[in-house]
Design brief:
heterodimer, A: alpha/beta, D-Maltodextrin-Binding Protein, domain 2, 2 domains, 10 strands, B: mainly alpha, MetI-like fold, 12 helices, globular
Chain lengths: 380, 299
């Protein structure tokens, strides 16, 4: 019996050690998400802590926010900003709805669907003026415009990313249920590369570039833009507004000054990324995106193209495009009814750009020109 | 590792530790490598044969390099840099693994503690067992992917760091096999031994520690090995709906989304994830070997 006793004791000892190790690990690595907010001046002592929920992984799509953090623009406004990464399972507008972040980046139609479902959120800054969504086909497929989709397998991502496509199908006089086969595609471009679909949804700044970073087995070189045909929903006229900054009405009631500061610093980040392309790409790379330098260069270039030139100054809603978004959303029955006037407000963004203009910054970017970007295999 | 037990048969006490089990351990290593080699061979063979048969026979997976990268490309990508300012991918993934392992380890510790407590409570009272066991079973029928986001959201609301939520998700997977197996182990002693204890007028506590707990050890170790893998799986799944900037689960997810630009990176991350689970199980098996090495002889 004594020996059995010692065995039990040994096991307990093992558990105690495990628990100790666990505790030690947790206290040593405790700074949960690590690298936020240690740059810039923390003068004035009192920093307001806010969290920004992104809708995807770290990449140049969110360069402006990372730049604002890195360059201390947030800190200059007295904000201690934590940037939270996204993913498929993370719905940014629900994250702010449940109080787990103060600000969220979301696409307008998705956010409005959540708003209709009762999450009282407000668009306070429409950062992207153009839609980045494309429907991409192989050049030899003969698909040049939406009506060519008839009888084809048309890929889309679902999860609310398909609205522009469905509207475009209908606009071409086709019935999305009978004239085309809608195929749910994975969040990469394998379906197109494996010819499992005839057309695939792609963001101009991400998945489209991923195709161009892939080796064509027939030529041994990367796929070229000439190998593909692209239908751009901005041209079709069913484009819907995308990346915008949202907060709950409750939060704004008490914190509109914080929101204005947040917008000002974020916009300054985007302006900095427009005017300091290489340095901004480096900021993104420093935050460990999944894909490498050439991909981030491509992405920032295209993102700049979605923002600049900004008709009313960055972040201030271009109302006709909002109306088009609502028009498509209601006619597609994505939304039951047009949202009330509280769905977006421009006063905070206007105050932010006024402050930026006072500092001598160009908030419209009329003179912005594209960079030449060469993609490399695997986006490296 | 379990192979080892047989060798100490009939050897009592201290001698067992001197009879060092190197040959069987070596033998299992050889087996491990042989099976690994044949898996690699099967993978590559499928690619070659598949290429020849493509279009003639329907294949479950495309044999091309986009769907099934060569094994050497998968291993090779571990030694390349993803970004110029980063170390090689292997180091990056090991770092992420360490982060995930911390979550898994806490989940493992919490989960086993809960599992042991439940098992001891149930072993003392049939009533408790009958009342609560259905809920314990029901807890495991809820898909983890469904409750993971809820735990993350609740955790964030309470104000915990996100990794604590991930550890709780991990513990959720861990406690069940521990509770079930430990309970079974606590009930496993020979009835005559229990009767003997009763005739000695031994209390519940003495019976538990001197008869039931030692008898439960083999059951507990099987449970711990299952739980070790479960804790890693739980941590990986728990990271998916989290907004963490770190962790192997997040790395897996991001490589999945960019699959076509580097399929070998996803496979490499999977490789590292399974290595993580295997080393965890290996640690438990080693401890088991030392704790239970005299077991066979005493029976």
């Amino acid at each position: 019996m004594r020996r059995n006793d010692t065995k039990a004791a040994k096991l307990l000892l093992l558990l105690a050690v495990l628990a100790l190790v666990a505790a030690a690990c947790s206290s040593s690595g405790g700074g949960d998400t690590g690298d936020t907010g240690d740059t810039g001046g923390d003068a004035g002592g009192e920093m307001t802590k806010v969290r920004l929920q992104l809708q995807w992984f770290t990449q140049a799509q969110f360069a402006g926010y990372y730049a604002a953090l890195d360059q201390g623009f947030y800190a200059d406004e007295g904000l201690d900003v934590e940037i939270l990464q996204g993913g498929v399972d993370i719905v940014p507008q629900q994250v702010i709805g449940s109080g787990n972040a103060e600000f969220a980046i979301s696409w307008v139609p998705k956010a409005l669907v959540s708003r209709e479902e009762g999450i009282d959120i407000v668009n306070i800054g429409q950062v992207f003026e153009r839609s980045g969504t494309l429907e991409v086909s192989w050049a030899d497929s003969g698909i040049k415009e939406p009506k060519d989709w008839k009888g084809k397998k048309v890929g889309n991502w679902g999860f609310g990313n398909e609205f522009e496509l469905i509207a475009a199908i209908r606009k071409a006089g086709l019935d999305p249920n009978t004239d085309v086969t809608l195929v749910q595609q994975a969040f990469d471009m394998s379906a197109l590369l494996n010819d499992e679909v005839d057309a695939a949804e792609a963001m101009i700044y991400n998945e489209y570039a991923q195709v161009l970073e892939t080796v064509n087995p027939e030529t041994g070189a990367l796929y070229q833009p000439e190998d593909l045909t692209v239908i751009d929903f901005n041209d079709v006229g069913t484009a819907m507004l995308q990346d915008s900054i949202w907060a709950t009405a409750d939060y704004l009631e008490a914190n509109s000054d914080v929101a204005t500061k947040f917008l000002k610093a974020s916009f300054e980040g985007w302006i900095w990324c427009r005017d300091n392309f290489d340095a901004c790409v480096q900021v993104v790379l420093d935050n460990a995106p999944t894909l490498g330098e050439s991909h981030q260069r491509w992405q920032l270039n295209e993102i700049n193209g979605l923002i600049w030139p900004a008709t009313n100054g960055i972040g201030v809603m271009n109302t006709p495009l909002w109306d088009q978004t609502i028009e498509v959303a209601t006619s597609e029955e994505i939304l039951e009814a047009a949202p009330d006037s509280g769905a977006f407000r421009t006063d905070l963004a206007e105050a932010a750009i006024k402050a930026l203009e006072a500092e001598g910054l160009d908030v419209k970017g009329d003179g912005w020109t594209r960079q030449e970007v060469e993609l490399k295999e695997g986006g490296n | 590792m379990e192979v080892v037990e047989g060798t100490s048969r009939r050897v009592e006490g201290r001698d067992a530790s001197n009879r060092s089990p190197i040959p069987p351990a070596f033998r299992s290593l050889v087996w491990f490598l042989a099976i690994l080699a044949s898996l690699v061979l099967a993978w590559e063979l499928y690619k070659v044969v598949g290429k020849a048969l493509e279009g003639i026979v329907p294949l479950p997976v495309r044999p091309d390099n986009k769907s099934m990268p060569h094994v050497w490309d998968i291993v090779g990508v571990l030694f390349t840099r993803r970004l110029p300012n980063e170390p090689i991918l292997l180091v990056v993934l090991l770092r992420e693994s360490l982060f995930t392992f911390r979550e898994a380890l806490i989940g493992f510790a919490v989960g086993t503690a809960v599992g042991f407590s439940l098992a001891i409570a149930f072993s003392q009272s049939r009533l408790l067992e009958r009342a609560f066991m259905p809920y314990v079973v029901a807890s495991q029928t809820v898909p983890l992917v469904a409750i993971a986001p809820i735990i993350v959201i609740w955790g964030a609301k309470i104000g915990w760091p996100v990794w604590i939520s991930v550890s709780i998700i991990s513990a959720y997977l861990v406690f069940f096999p521990v509770a079930i197996n430990t309970l079974r182990g606590l009930r496993s002693p020979d009835p005559t031994a229990m009767e003997l204890m009763r005739s000695y007028a031994a209390g519940r506590r003495d019976t538990l520690w001197k008869v039931q707990a030692p008898a439960a050890m083999p059951f507990i170790f099987s449970a711990l090995k299952i739980s070790a893998t479960a804790s890693v799986v739980g941590a990986l799944v728990g990271e998916l709906p989290s907004s963490l900037n770190q962790g192997l689960g997040r790395a897996l997810l991001s490589f999945m989304y960019t699959f076509i630009t580097g399929p070998e990176k996803l496979f490499a991350a999977i490789l590292v994830a399974s290595l993580l689970s295997m080393s965890f199980v290996g640690v438990i098996a080693t401890v088991e070997h030392y704790v239970l090495r005299n077991r066979r002889g005493s029976r």
